[in-house]
Amino acid sequence: MNVIIGVVIVTLSVFGGFVLEHGNLATIFQPIEVMIIMGAAIGAMLIMSPIKVFKETINALKGVLKTEHYTSEKYIDVLTLLYEIFNKMRKEGIIAVEAHVEDPEKSEIFKRYPDILQNKRTLDFICDSIKTLLSIEITPYEFDNLLEVDIEANTEEKNHPIHRVEKMADALPGLGIVAAVLGVVLTMGKINESPEVLGHSIGAALVGTFLGVLLCYGFVGPLATLMQHKVKEEESYYHVIRIALVSFVARSVPQIAIEFARRAIPESERPSFNELEKIVKGKK
Fold first, then answer.
1. Out of 64, 88, 99, 173, which could bridge 212 as a Cys pair, Cβ 3.0 to 4.6 Å?
2. What is the C-alpha separation between 58 and 61, in angstroms, rounded?
3. Taking phi first (over 0 means left), then psi (-120 to 50 degrees means alpha), and beta for anything else, what does residue 93 get?
4. Tell me, what's the pLDDT at 284?
């Protein structure tokens, strides 16, 4: 919703201000200029992106319209799930959770957390980490490194579309100049026309530069920043899970492991100690 509101505000501010200054919108309505600039920008993105990354970029751009965030409720959900798993492992031994992580869809523990069950990335991260503990002996330090590598690889992949959109934003002012130069070339072919015709033609050519700068700083650049924010949010979420898992492997009791993880949650979304303790006590 914020994206749509922002686009409306930028559009109304720029074009509304132009109209209030008695500008004629017909002068800057140049669909061919838009076609040249955006067509060249998309073509350039195709040149610099393998088809897999191009598809990921399109999907990432679609994703910015979603209002999903890593809220306090999401953190509480995953920490409560981890507490249940840790508690079971502590009381019954690590082997007691094998069936749960091997087939989480049939697990009575995971079924209580449908949002996590539907999130393949989160589900795989938790289950694969515990499967590692089931299959080999690993020190807390090595386990921490393993999870760090997983998060880093995922974050790096999620950053690929952002780099492409940033490159596109950087290119738009230059492509606007290309469109403007083409307009000037066309104007030179009308050099014998009346000043009115020449003025209209020069104005249309300058619209290319205007559109390139507007698209860069008003729309595409901010979209890249929003995409980056979403990746950072996701990265923080997985680091919280990582801290809980590593703390438990380092022989912390479940309550302490969850408290370590709670302290790693960004302050704006961090549940209070009493809030999380009340929920966790209900799971004992």
1. 173
2. 5
3. left
4. 57
For residue 19, being part of any structural domain is answered with: no
Integer angstrom CA distances of residue 247 from 39, 150, 199, 228: 51, 17, 71, 28
- Domain annotation covers residue 259: yes
Please give the C-alpha separations between residue 270 and each of 76, 83, 231, 248, 259, in angstroms, as whole numbers: 9, 17, 18, 20, 11
Query: Tens of pLDDT along 52-110?
Result: 888 888 888 887 777 678 889 999 999 999 999 999 999 888 899 999 999 999 999 99
Q: What's the domain range around 109?
A: 31-284
Q: How many domains does the chain have?
A: 1
Residue 223 in contact with residue 110, Cβ under 8 Å? no
In a domain, 163, yes or no: yes
